[in-house]
Description:
The chain is α/β, with parallel strands linked by helices. It has helices spanning 18-29, 39-49, 65-74, 76-89, 103-116, 137-141, 153-167, 235-239, 247-260, 278-290, 309-317, 332-338, 344-356, 374-386, 406-409, 411-414, 436-449, 460-473, 477-490, 494-510; strands at 2-7, 33-38, 93-97, 121-125, 147-149, 176-179, 185-187, 217-220, 223-224, 243-244, 266-269, 296-301, 320-328, 360-367, 393-398, 416-418, 427-429, 454-456. It is built from 20 helices and 18 strands. Strand 1, helix 1 and strand 2 form a beta-alpha-beta unit.
Amino acid sequence: MEALLIQPPCWVVRTPPYNLALLKAVCTSAGHDVSCIDYNIKFFGYLSKNGEQYIYDNPTDWYNEAYVAELISKYSKFIDQCVHEIILSQIKVIGFSITGLSRFFAQEMARRIKLRDKERIIIFGGPHCFKDELGEKILYNCPHVDVICYLEGESALPNLLNILEKNQRLEPLPGMATRNQDGKIISSADVQMCTDLNSLPFADFSDFDLFDYTAEELPIATSRGCINRCLFCSESRVWGRYRFRNAESVFAEIKQQLSYYPFIKSFFFNDSLLNGSLVTLGKLSDLLTENKIKIQWGGQAAIRQGMSKELIEKMRKAGFSHVSYGLESASPRILRMIGKNFTVALAERVIRDTKKADIRTDVNVIVGFPTETREDILETVNFLRRNRNFIDQIFLHPLVLSHGSGFFEQKERWGIEYENFHNPNTWYSTKEDNSLSTRLERLKFYEAFIENKGKTFFTLDNYDLFIADDYFNRGEFKKAYSHYAKAQETNKDLLKNNFIKKRMELAKAQQ
């Protein structure tokens, strides 16, 4: 059975999409003919030719449906070209990988495909389709989408292709939602999880031109889930038991990809944490060193007791070159509250040992936890300043509360509500002054105190635009207008400037 897998905008442009490459390999092993197209990198290239690649500078803009509507209107010709290419392929089954950022663009592509050929079968999968996110609600709101895959697609997609090949019609399957002939939505909550990641084939990147991407790097995944259950995160709740590949499997994939793409210089571990299994991590380092594999590798890691100086130095010898630690806070009270399993002293030791081993060391800090006080903030700021010579980059993130997080599950306790239920940035608390605008103001406080060493996904115009939207949604139109004006002064995106102008007119009319 033929199928086409699509990565719509907006997504990363450094590397090809790992999830599509893996699904292609899985479906090919099951006897199906699956191809992939990355329309995200094609759109980035399209914009770059016109000097408009800055549209990718602030991915959080893509959560805003009105802004994406402006993009769709301006770049309608590009979308039509994509749809025309899909229609010409004559492939009946078309799957989209969906996140909160790509959702609106993907829906428009799907709509136009169905207008051209209503017999095409449109599948949506990916993080935004998880049951804790939109799930089958997508089917209620998007009549041009036929199937939702809730979680892991390695079993569900081949099973679906088998059924379509045999019976030429959609049928209810575990881990998916679809419609019956009467239009009623049929959902199966029995999500099939892969219990043995070592049994999966290696990702197949053959449909992607690696020279289109901005880094000579490939993604690789070695695990699913997390060993922790932090209150702000949905990872372990969504993925269940932590699962990981053995060192031999990971090493074999690295060797195979290098044989296909010898120009690749590094691998990014596309995991929530690459050090969930310290034994595997040590063994992989030994295999890379013993076999004289000259690559760089890195990714996200947890601060944990087993990250000894000896292990870190072994990893560095094996090419480990960059890491982003989930510090989140250096307030002992906040760390206990959110369920972090390390002390401030341990965090300081691990960070310093990593940097001393000549490894690029970044840390993530979350701004705006419920009940966070000025004292909590100052403890974190002082930690960052005390260790600034051992940290290459500090990434500041206003707290995002996804629907599967522990905070969300206990939202009544914390007084958590949402301005936009499907935008996890827009949560606020009814029990304290904690809204998006509050969190962004705290973020600016952090940046000032750590002497501009922090980095955030919010540029100045993006920052003011988000605050303006927050005030607008709460009916504080005078404050909204003021921040819209600031955003318009500082942004270089003409499309966004026009969008902001319209929002300013609305805010002024409401005053």
